[in-house]
């Protein structure tokens, strides 16, 4: 039995009782003058209006009770704890300022003395909430710096606790693809992701759905993602948080991530190309693991020499293909005759594509 059904029954009883009392009163008034013929008795008035009250209570009660509460609940679920705390702090500060100004404003002549104190409460309450929410990151940074270590200001690079507070003040949303990829655990372990890793419940549910897939390959990928999450949670230096925050009216996980990232003002960590483009178009910061991997690959210039083992033929005639230790493909002109051999290659061109970096070269004469 749902809560809304119970509320409907309670509302029906209340409105029925009110309708019976009201109908009884109307019936008595209508039948008070005996000279006027009245086709309805007091009981008929009470029954009719009570029945109307029951119908009104059954239909309209959720509109005034459960549905507004459900709307407020969904709104608060979308707001981050940091924004909510900043709103409450700003409201308190605004009301304190309004209270301090209420007495001198009340001494003004009528009607200003009656209107301005109330207007000050509304104005300063709104300004307090707006300013604190708009500058919440700066406010929390200042608080983290003051509280840093035993009340002493935190010095970046010298204070371990202050560094942790600074890191935890930043939130990074994790996508399902980057969890399944697995490299996130190694990246986070190196300390290049200063922030708290946030996994929304809808991402966890999608990962669980993949792990339960009848397809063996998808099932293996989902279980790998579960193992990666378990490793991240066991790392003491990596703050990982699970959240029940959801986005109402949206079904796709990627769309929910983008909307949630805009609401929390935080980046998305992913290696999904489509999600990357959609998020960038909507002004959301994206941390792409593939772009990071390409950025840290060895930088080679034309004319440099490297040792490469040719492992297969290329697409064009007389080409050979090898790979560097970081996975970068090296296309060797005239390298077909050196398959399964390690040779010295002179770099002739370096090409950066969306799929990664490609290096072209020729055997050293």
Identify the notable features of this structure and list them briefly.
16% strand, Rossmann fold, 5-stranded parallel beta sheet, 10 strands, 5-stranded mixed beta barrel, 365 residues, alpha/beta
Overview of the structural elements:
The termini are far apart. Mean pLDDT is 83; it is low at 149-167. With 365 residues, the chain is α/β, with parallel strands linked by helices. It is built from 14 helices and ten strands. 56% of the residues lie in helices and 16% in strands. The chain has four domains: 3-69; 79-134; 170-294, Rossmann fold; 297-363, Nucleic acid-binding proteins (OB fold (Dihydrolipoamide Acetyltransferase, E2P)), CATH 2.40.50. The protein has a five-stranded parallel sheet with strand order 3-2-1-4-5. Strands 6-7-8-10-9 form a five-stranded mixed β-barrel.
């Amino acid at each position: 039995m749902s809560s809304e059904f119970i509320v409907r029954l309670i509302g029906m009883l209340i409105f029925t009782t009110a309708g019976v009392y009201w109908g009884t009163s109307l019936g008595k008034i209508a039948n008070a003058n005996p000279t006027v013929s009245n086709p309805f008795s007091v009981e008929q008035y009470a029954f009719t209006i009570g029945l109307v009250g029951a119908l009104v209570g059954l239909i309209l009660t959720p509109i005034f009770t459960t549905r507004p509460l459900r709307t407020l609940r969904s709104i608060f679920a979308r707001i981050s704890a940091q924004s909510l705390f900043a709103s409450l702090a700003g409201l308190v500060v605004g009301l304190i300022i309004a209270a301090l100004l209420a007495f001198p404003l009340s001494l003004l002549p009528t009607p200003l003395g009656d209107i301005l104190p109330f207007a000050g409460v509304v104005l300063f309450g709104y300004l307090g909430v707006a300013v604190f929410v708009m500058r919440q990151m700066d406010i929390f940074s200042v608080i983290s710096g003051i509280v840093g270590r035993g009340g002493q200001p935190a010095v970046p690079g010298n204070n371990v606790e202050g560094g942790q507070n600074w890191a935890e003040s930043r939130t990074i949303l994790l996508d399902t693809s980057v969890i399944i990829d697995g490299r996130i655990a190694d990246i986070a372990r190196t300390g290049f992701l200063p922030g708290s890793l946030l996994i929304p419940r809808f991402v966890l549910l999608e990962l669980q759905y993949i792990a339960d897939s009848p397809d063996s390959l998808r099932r293996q990928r989902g279980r790998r993602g579960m193992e990666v999450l378990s490793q991240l949670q066991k790392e003491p230096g990596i703050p990982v948080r699970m959240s029940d925050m959801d986005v109402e009216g949206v079904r796709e996980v990627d769309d929910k991530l983008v909307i949630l990232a805009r609401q929390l003002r935080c980046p998305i960590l992913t290696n999904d190309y489509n999600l990357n483009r959609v998020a960038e178009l909507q002004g959301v910061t994206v941390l792409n693991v593939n772009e990071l991997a390409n950025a840290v690959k060895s930088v080679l210039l034309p004319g440099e020499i490297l040792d490469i083992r040719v492992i297969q033929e290329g697409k064009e005639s007389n080409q050979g293909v090898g790979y560097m230790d970081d996975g970068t493909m090296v296309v060797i002109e005239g390298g077909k005759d050196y398959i399964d051999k390690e040779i010295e290659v002179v770099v002739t061109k370096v090409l950066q594509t969306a799929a990664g970096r490609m290096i072209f070269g020729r055997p050293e004469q």
